[in-house]
Design a protein that fits this description.
The protein is an alpha+beta fold. 29% of the residues lie in helices and 21% in strands. It has a domain of 119 residues: 3-Layer(aba) Sandwich (Aminopeptidase).
């Protein structure tokens, strides 16, 4: 079976398929304290590999998944954004992570998340999406609010401690 993962271009970013060469930058991210909101416990190289394989495998199994973000003209990964839906999660999520503090404050995640949401709504025909966010992750909460998401206290969460931010419906974005 083969799967075609699209490449999306935004004003400043290339959003591409995950690849083997992303393992080292992903592992470096998971070695940092800044990854604490997207992992449980200490990340070993084996666990990092499983994360990368999970991200890549969702494209084959679900037909959608996360994109790796790079700046145009440079294939060095900045982070990841896109659809994420492990089997035990109650809803499809639009998630994101920025792998280096050097890239904070430039709006890259919001730019990528907007493009990912458009892809999910237009190409995958989603009618809704959520983002599961740790209550202490104020940076991600700000991104969600910038995207027009609202706290949905009635939605089930992927994790007991996560907040659920509901994205505007496709028709609300037109």
């Amino acid at each position: 079976m083969s799967v075609t993962i699209p490449t999306i271009e935004t004003e400043r970013l290339i959003m591409r398929a995950p690849k083997f060469e992303d393992f080292e930058p992903l592992s470096a991210f998971y070695a940092q304290e800044r990854s604490k909101y997207v992992r449980e416990g200490k990340m070993t190289p084996d666990k990092c590999w499983r994360v990368l394989a999970h991200v890549a495998g969702q494209w084959m199994l679900r037909g959608y998944g996360m994109f790796v973000l790079t700046l145009k003209g440079n294939d060095v990964p900045l982070g990841a954004a896109g659809a994420f839906h492990p089997i035990e999660w109650p809803e499809r999520e639009l998630g994101w992570s920025l792998w280096s503090a050097d890239h904070e404050g430039h709006g890259y995640i919001a730019e990528a998340a907007i493009a990912c949401r458009a892809y999910a709504y237009n190409n995958c025909k989603w009618t809704t999406a959520v983002s599961y966010i740790d209550p202490e992750n104020t940076a991600s909460i700000k991104v969600a609010e910038r995207l027009g998401c609202v706290l949905d206290k009635s939605a089930k969460s992927a994790y007991e401690s996560c907040l659920v931010y509901r994205h505007p419906a496709p028709e609300a974005l037109q």
